[in-house]
């Protein structure tokens, strides 16, 4: 967007929602990288999301094996959801040019709707695990958590779809020259709810209810990061809705950070420890089997 073009020193277009020139087989490669949001904006989104998908693919065989032996319904379901949302997010990051391409408005809105809703589902379900203390529980905990998360995200999708296709509010098309006040007010409400929830969980960590939360530093760091990100996004939406150009730049930065870094953060917070614990568990099992077989008897003589 405009912010990244200014930082990189790339000449600005006359308007953010520049109409891309059509010719040949769709937009040219140059237009894909430069015309809509700018080179650095596109790279900042595509590279981290692509690297994370490649990392998941590289670790897929080991992860499937550990999930099979671990037999945790929550981890298996969450890992599957992470794969689906990561692919959706990669598509969203790679197809930013659709936002500025005539005839792609509906496709862009649908892709943005399902991508953001998928990422919100990951957020809500993880918060549900935190509050229920179900870090790796059974099928009942999985069903209860996913039903609650599905209802919340389903309501979110319904409301956004009504605003998008019913009232024609451009929720996912950003234009800093003609800010849509209703749109930014809606985003203020959305970010306010998320900030309040993360703030409440952060308060629990410093209250007598902290024992209800997992005693893992990774979870605490995750809550702090998400609280700060949503608080900044809330402030930025308020500024943009009031016509401040700096707010639009700040909001743009939070969007890039969220789509580029949130899924890796979630993986490190919620899944990486599980896979590491499985490795330690397997090492302990192998050690016990070798000890029972007498491999270490000579060490005690």
Structure, briefly:
By secondary structure, the chain is mainly alpha-helical.
Topology, element by element:
Layout: H1 2-8, H2 29-34, H3 39-58, H4 60-70, H5 73-94, H6 105-132, H7 139-166, H8 181-205, H9 217-241, H10 245-292
Helix pairs in contact: 3-5, 3-10, 5-6, 5-10, 6-7, 8-9, 9-10
What can you see in these coordinates?
By secondary structure, the protein is mainly α. The protein has ten helices and no strands. Helix 3 runs antiparallel to helix 5 and helix 8 packs antiparallel against helix 9 (about 215-240). The longest helix has about 50 residues, at about 245-290. The termini are far apart. About 30% of the residues are buried. The model is unreliable at about 1-25, about 280-285 and about 295-300 (pLDDT under 50).
Percent in strands: under 5%
- SSE succession: HHHHHHHHHH
Spatial shape? globular
Distance between the termini: 70 Å
Give the biggest sheet: none
Overall residue-averaged pLDDT value: 79
Poorly predicted regions are 1-27, 278-287, 293-301
